[in-house]
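Its record is set out here:
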Amino acid sequence: MRLNDEKDLRAGDVVPLLRKDGSEFARVEITCAREVEFAKLSEADWEGHELSGSRELIAEEFRRFYGSAPSPTTLVKAVRFRILPRGVIARGAEAVIEREGEKTLIKTRVAKGYRHAAIDSKLRLQRTRLEARVLKRAKAAGVNVPRIHSSDERGAVVRMEFLDGPTLKAAFDVGLSERIADQVIRLHSAGIIHGDLTTSNMVLSGGKVHLIDFGLARFSASAEDRAVDLHVLEEALASTHTGEAAEAFARILSAYETKFPEVAARLKKVESRGRYVRRKED
């Protein structure tokens, strides 16, 4: 459980567990993260906690760790996780990411039992081939992306460069806005749509912003597709970096529209469609 969740942990996040000296000894995947008043914590929320079953002991633990004990109405975040197998650093709906040594990541698209075996094999082959082609074109266009070491299409495996550094979700700063814009401009200029432009899919390594996770990427040069890509980024900033989102996206868009003014204009239509959908839902 966490009293001040400065990391904004959410289900699906992969985070390291650290020793007292700061060294990593395991990685875990968050399976559940819910905010609740301290008085309303249930046994399921603290199941597995070393002080399980005693609200008073947990309150004292919070006091020692955070400097103050929670009141009954204090919001706390109950977090559950599972330890990832050694070597595995992420496990998504489509693929498992493993680290090999100090400089290599292995991305393996896993078979889906609910799909027909022949269809599943074909889909994994096609998506592996497309991702490798996208990364190679992006690298050639000067986009900061992982370098491909090798690609096994039939095995649905891509071996690529490991980028040492935090994601921008963990290390976001408005001052990085222009560097983000530069990478998106280069990507779109190469005729590539990322498909999932979030700060979780950006890494700050060597002082540079890198784009990662091209599992949803495709080739397109249409203004509509580029505008939707930008809108995904805009929405991601608003949901994850609330206090800085408006300024950050304004700076990103200001730099972007010097290269693609027609896309910036199209973005307004995409945004209006999103607002219309939300009004309908309300």
About this structure: The first helix runs from residue 43 to 46. The first strand starts at residue 14 and ends at 18.
